[in-house]
Amino acid sequence: MMNVKQKAAKTSKVKKQKLVLREQLFGDIDEGLLWDRTKQTGFTTIPRTFPILAQIMDEVADKGKPVSGAYFALWCRVFDESLVEIKNPGQLAAESGFSGQRAISTWNGRMAKLVELGFIDAQEGALGDYEYILIYNPYLIIKKLYDDKKVNKVKYLSLFARAQEIGATDLG
Predict the structure, then answer these.
(1) pLDDT, tens digit, for every residue of 108-145?
(2) Has this prediction a pTM greater than 0.70?
(3) Domain ranges in the chain?
(4) What confidence score (pLDDT) does residue 83 get?
(5) Any idea which architecture 50-166 has in CATH?
(6) CB of 119 within 8 A of CB of 57?
(7) Kind of pairing between the strands at 128-135 and 83-85
(8) Residue 160, Cα to own-chain centre: how many angstroms?
(9) E strands, the chain, where?
(10) Burial letters 3-14, b for 16+ CB under 10 A, else e
(11) What's the CA gap between 138 and 64, in Å, rounded?
(12) In principle, which of 33, 86, 98, 115 could form an S-S bond with 93, CB 3.0–4.6 Å?
């Protein structure tokens, strides 16, 4: 296990390598045209495994009713407290990809499924059933679903391998 100083040195070395490669491939780039999470605001931390997490979520949800769009919209609003306060369900429905007269009811259905699967918990408020959302660690939920034989083994092993590759230890 690396200590903080070793991890920072490795990160710095990798960053330098990527910058050299980027310059070789793309030449001299105007840094102002690039997104730098250390200089810009309005960003969130997303697991590097999110594409695989989303595939698994959609696979364990009801066929034809994917939940990953609603989950991602929540994730983009969460801070380190794992709590999201929803003040405008219509806006969350739209951010989740739903439109039209049934947007909010469709979004409510996806939220109910996320609760049922264990990815989130919800408390109602004056604005509806999903005003307060608690987001759980998706790795732990998928591990439980896998142990309960609800997750495809190939997808789980793909997630596990990628998690190991990036140093995430949540799956064991």
Answers:
(1) 999 999 999 999 999 999 989 999 999 999 999 999 99
(2) yes
(3) 4-29, 50-166
(4) 97
(5) Orthogonal Bundle (1.10)
(6) yes
(7) antiparallel
(8) 16
(9) 83-85, 120-125, 128-135
(10) eeeeeeeeeeee
(11) 21
(12) 98
